[in-house]
Automatic annotation (TrEMBL):
Residues 72-306 form the Inosine/uridine-preferring nucleoside hydrolase domain. GO terms for cellular component: cytosol. It comes from the Bacteria. GO terms for biological process: purine nucleoside catabolic process. GO terms for molecular function: purine nucleosidase activity. This is Pyrimidine-specific ribonucleoside hydrolase. InterPro entries: Inosine/uridine_hydrolase_dom, IUNH, Ribo_hydro-like.
Amino acid sequence: MKQKIKLFGILCVFTMLFACKEQVKEPVAEVETAMAKAPILTGVVNGKKQVWIDADLAVGKKNIGRPGYSDVDDGYAVLQLLQADNVQVLGLSTVFGNNSIENAFAIGTYINKEFAAQKIEVYKGAGSAINLDSVVTNDAVEAMATALKKQPLTILAIGPATNVGLLLLKYPELKSQIVEVVLVAGRRTANDYFKIGNKGVQAQDLNFDLDNTAFRVLLENKVPLVFCPYEISSKVWVKQEDLEAFKTTTPGMKWLATASQPWLEQWKNQGADGFNPFDVMASHYIIAPEDIVSEPLLARLEINLDDTVKENNKETYKSYLLCTKEEGAPVTYCYDVVPGFHQKLMSTFKAN
């Protein structure tokens, strides 16, 4: 009798352990099921993905309020999509972020005028984060809404997600027209630091940090989201020899490579021998998702100590965009590239 009771007890323990294990797996399974059941929008016309670009362009501009130059990688993302054979860019909107909205709009207008084979419209968007007490539209939001009413679109949002967030607040009925929104943001844990060089500099998850509310709107509306975070961009480098190669391709790339020199020098000053092209990982995902390694995860906002503040004695906190297997909204999380990716990337910038 005692042996039967003991055996029964052992079986109960194993049953409980198995159940707990299944509960841990369940959220991830739910993500995969939700993605499989979601309506399939192709957003493809005549073999070309229909894409809207929303960017905080800052190529060649000095930082505002601090020394140094602003990011250049958004320029690479825009030019890469403009000359991609399988992409049709239907519009370009600008947003604040790496620099001012005025500078972003001026650069977008310049790129379109000088380097776009097929001219597109450029629209000025939000100059600051979403204010829930006063949700105000802008030219970029209205233009995106008009385009989405006509056809499904993939949205590349490589600055703060403000314009897309405003779009969903003002026109929630249009979310069914969004194929996916591809963004540069997120991390797995609050301790996954964005290290620049080897001299102790830790960067922000800037697009998210500048407008937490916009990302919350996207997550709550459950639109298909693709995150291309620092984790994946940290595995790709643009070096001096790459800039020299870019100068021999197209007029647009010659302009961009020249403007990238001060940005490269800043990274060298921090101990790196190149820079990570953050936004290009997102644009490349649109062109050739097979070159990007990703997995389904769940995304949520969570408050933790600010990782960019040194000697932070539980005094400064901030929100994080965390992507895990435990809880949150379903997202596609990109974390690596296929072998030979650098050459694949370089080939997308060559003259057709």
